[in-house]
Write a structure and sequence with these properties.
The chain is mainly beta. It has 2 helices and 13 strands; from the N terminus they run βαββββββαββββββ. The radius of gyration is 19 Å and the shape is globular. The two termini are 15 Å apart.
Length: 267
């Protein structure tokens, strides 16, 4: 099997899922705008979403994600997985992933980062301090581990991130899992992507679709999210405690690269 993960060059794609959306129930009033005005509105919507996400003290998000894998004959096969992320400021992060490749759990309590594979009872731990956002920024370089949905902590932090967007349009209004949203589409050099943002004073990302332009088959990555911004989170959930039969292993050394690779979502 030829595997090419759908990639993106902004820190926006870690949002990830795959369920239905009623798109363009009524069109946004974009016809009266010129291209630059429409793009400005779309980018402002992204910035508003990022600011809101960074303002949350605690939240839980559940996502159903799907990813296309391209076979050697060009046929696309779609795989689904489920992700649950719990986060609490300033330092509390837990991500549980269930996929055809098995289960993984990630823990961060402000003192240590741990990756645990429940099925084979292996875990690896390194000392880690700082905030959730600081952990995400340094995790890849230290361990090579990547987590889904963690770009939720990064969007909007880089003032130059929007420069990679070549064009943006307002698609219209719709709903995701019964929640009304605004639907936007963006183009970049290597990807086309769409995002549905909840309407109103809580601009949460509800659905993300990323289409790779690096392959002729244009594989897609889709994520649909359900949010709980009033979740009562227990600090114990962020600290890993070895269970009977668990075996401690070490993270493999991370090879240094001359250039930074675009971020991708882990399996």
């Amino acid at each position: 099997m030829r595997h090419q993960a759908t990639r993106h060059v902004l820190a926006i794609a870690a949002f990830l899922g795959g369920s239905g959306i009623a798109v363009a129930e009524e069109q946004a009033p974009a016809a009266a705008m010129n291209d630059s005005e429409e793009q400005m509105i779309a980018l402002e919507a992204l910035n508003k979403m990022g600011s809101y996400l960074r303002s949350l003290d605690a939240f839980k998000v559940q996502a159903v994600t799907s990813r296309d894998e391209v076979l050697m004959n060009g046929q696309k096969i779609q795989f689904d997985r489920s992700v649950e992320l719990q986060a609490k400021k300033p330092a509390g992060l837990r991500v549980d992933v269930t996929s055809p490749y098995g289960e993984r759990s990630f823990y961060f309590d402000g003192k240590a980062f741990t990756l645990h594979t429940p099925e084979n009872k292996f875990y690896a731990t390194i000392p880690a301090s700082g905030t959730n956002g600081e952990l995400i920024e340094t995790l890849q370089s230290k361990t090579g581990a990547t987590m889904p949905l963690v770009d939720l902590f990064l969007w909007g932090a880089d003032e130059n991130a929007g420069s990679a967007i070549e064009s943006a349009i307002i698609v219209g209004y719709g709903s995701v899992n019964g929640v009304k949203c605004e639907h936007y589409a963006f183009r970049q050099k290597e990807i086309d992507w769409q995002i549905c943002i909840q309407q109103g004073e809580t601009p949460l990302p509800l659905k993300l679709v990323i289409t790779s332009k690096l392959e002729a088959e244009q594989p897609q990555y889709v994520s649909v999210m359900k949010w709980d911004t009033a979740a009562a989170l227990d600090d114990k959930a962020f600290a890993y405690t070895p269970q009977e039969g668990d075996t401690k292993i070490s993270f493999n050394p991370v090879a240094k690269k001359s250039t930074a690779a675009p971020k991708g979502d882990e399996k």
